[in-house]
Amino acid sequence: MSILNQIKGRLIVSCQALENEPLHGAEIMRKMAKAAKEGGAVAIRANGVNDVIAIKDETQLPVIGLIKRDYPNCDVYITPTIREIDELIHSGCEIIAMDATNRCHPDRVTLKEKVERIHQASRLAMADISTLEEAIQAQSLGFDIVSTTLSGYTPYSPQQEAPDFQLIGECVKNLSIPVIAEGRIFSVEDIKAVKAQKPFAIVVGSAITRPQIITKRFNDAYLE
What we know:
Layout: H1 2-7, E1 11-15, H2 26-38, E2 43-47, H3 49-59, E3 63-66, H4 82-91, E4 95-99, H5 111-120, E5 124-128, H6 132-141, E6 145-147, H7 165-174, E7 179-182, H8 188-195, E8 201-204, H9 206-209, H10 211-223
Parallel strand pairs: 1-2, 1-8, 2-3, 3-4, 4-5, 5-6, 6-7, 7-8
Helix pairs in contact: 2-3, 3-4
């Protein structure tokens, strides 16, 4: 509960860079997280054990940990199996985020069993969802937090450039657990509109920590 109190009504910054991105590496993400903290972020969302450990060491902020890992014939890649959960438990992150969509998962362990494993390790479980149905299901399975991270990343959720304001609002109205707003928040205007839906907290990622995407948006606008 102390972690939830710390992030309530505040900004969380996602500091992630995949292997094919220019800023990939724990030492770079360590500095990115430090900059985010100086800007007012109260928690960091991070991908991979090395990044989690480096960021916690640098910032002493709570970390929402996840591991993006591809498995054959499976679209689910955010903390997809018990293996990733156990790795994150040992990383020391306070919150473990995982895909809680209705898609095929690569192992035969149920979401409920995964949540129980997280709780046994005294961590909070965050459900990354793409629809209200998935959010309600996640709450029923015992997740502590729901995040709208995956709206637009499943074929049955809205494919749009703007944040999914409707999903955020519906989750806030229909759930009793904290709702974290995340996804396609690129401007101050976006964050104000998202805040109007009254989420528990807001995550911003690419608009702050992926300079190649930020540059492309400016360049595309310039060349129009």
